[in-house]
Specification:
By secondary structure, the chain is mainly beta. 10% of the residues lie in helices and 41% in strands. It folds into two domains: 59 residues, SH3 type barrels, CATH 2.30.30; 196 residues, Alpha-Beta Complex (Fumarylacetoacetate hydrolase, domain 2), CATH 3.90.850. It has four helices and 20 strands. Strands 1, 2, 3, 4, 5, 6, 7, 8, 11, 12, 14 and 17 form a twelve-stranded mixed beta sheet that branches.
Length: 266
C-alpha cells in the first residue's frame, strides 16, 4: 500500500495511491488517489472514505512531518571511499531538523553559506510506533514503511565544521516522498539519482554495510523513536554537486520517484 499525504482545496488528508491497470503495466504508472482518514498514530490503520482524486488534482506533501530525522553516514563502502573516508567501525549518525523537510515537487533554496551542495539519494525508513531498545529481529514490527529521500549536503561546510548541523540541516536539505510504501522488502532495492535527466548515482540497498534492522536497533538504544520519525540509511557512490536550476530526481525500486528543483534563496 502506498500512503500519501496531500492537500486539496486547503485541506490536508492522507490517502492510498492506487495503480490503474488501464494506464500501464508498471506499478509506478499511477492514476488515482483514494482519500482516507488521517493516519492514526496508535496502530497506523487507515479508514477509507470512498472519495478519490486524480493525482494531478492534488498537491503531494511530505508523507510525514517527523519529530526528528536520524541519518547514517558512510553506510556504503564505495561512497565512503569516494570522499576519502574509511568505513567506520561504529556507525556514524547525525540529526537533521524537521525544518529541513520538503515534499515532492517543492523547490529547495540553495543555502547562502555554501557553494558546493551535493545530492545524496537514500532509502528512508518511516517509524510506525513508539519504540526504544528494539532488538534486530523485532525491527519490522516498528516500521510503518519506506520512502525516497535526498540527504542534501553542503559539502564545503561539512569539511570546514566539526559538527554537521549546518551542512546537513539547512532549510530544504531533506526532501521526502512521494509517498510511503508499506509492503516492501528493503534488502535489495535499486537506488538511483539523476540530475537534469543524467544518471549520477546507481546502487542497491544490498550494498549497505549495516542493514535497515541493524540501523534502527542501533539508534533505538540511544533515543526513543516516535511515529513518523525518519531514518536515512546512507547513500551509494556517485554523489556530486547541484546548482541553482538543477532538477534532482531520486528513484527507489518499488516506491517511485522524488523530484525537486534547486532554486536561489530569497
Amino acid at each position: 500500500m502506498r500512503i500519501a499525504r496531500f492537500s486539496k482545496d486547503g485541506q490536508i488528508s492522507f490517502g492510498v495511491v492506487e495503480h490503474d491497470p488501464a494506464k500501464g503495466s508498471s506499478p509506478d504508472e499511477l492514476a488515482s488517489l483514494t482519500v482516507a482518514a488521517v493516519l492514526r498514530q496508535d496502530d497506523g490503520s487507515l479508514k477509507p472514505t470512498g472519495t478519490s482524486h486524480a493525482l494531478g488534482d492534488v498537491r503531494l506533501l511530505p508523507p510525514v512531518l517527523p519529530s526528528k530525522i536520524v541519518a547514517f553516514g558512510r553506510n556504503y563502502a564505495e561512497h565512503a571511499a569516494e570522499l576519502g573516508n574509511e568505513v567506520p567501525d561504529v556507525p556514524v549518525t547525525f540529526l537533521k531538523p524537521s525544518t529541513s523537510v520538503v515534499g515532492p515537487g517543492d523547490p529547495v533554496p540553495y543555502p547562502s553559506f555554501s557553494s558546493e551542495v551535493h545530492h545524496e539519494a537514500e532509502l528512508a525508513v518511516v517509524i510506525g510506533r513508539v519504540c526504544r531498545d528494539v532488538p534486530v529481529e523485532r525491527v519490522p514490527e516498528v516500521i510503518l514503511g519506506y520512502t525516497c529521500a535526498n540527504d542534501l549536503t553542503a559539502r564545503d561546510a561539512q569539511r570546514a565544521e566539526k559538527q554537521w548541523a549546518r551542512a546537513k540541516g539547512f532549510d530544504g536539505a531533506c526532501p521526502l516522498g512521494p509517498w510511503i510504501e508499506n509492503e516492501l522488502d528493503p534488502a535489495d532495492l535499486a537506488v538511483t539519482c539523476t540530475v537534469n535527466g543524467e544518471v549520477r548515482q546507481s546502487g542497491r540497498t544490498s550494498q549497505m554495510i549495516r542493514s535497515v534492522a541493524e540501523q534502527i536497533a542501533f539508534v533505538s538504544q540511544a533515543m526513543t523513536l516516535l511515529p513518523g520519525d525518519v531514518i536515512l540509511t546512507g547513500t551509494p557512490a556517485g554523489v556530486g554537486p547541484v546548482q541553482v536550476g538543477d532538477e534532482v530526481a531520486v528513484t527507489i525500486e518499488g516506491i517511485g520517484t522524488l523530484t525537486n528543483r534547486m532554486v536561489k534563496r530569497d
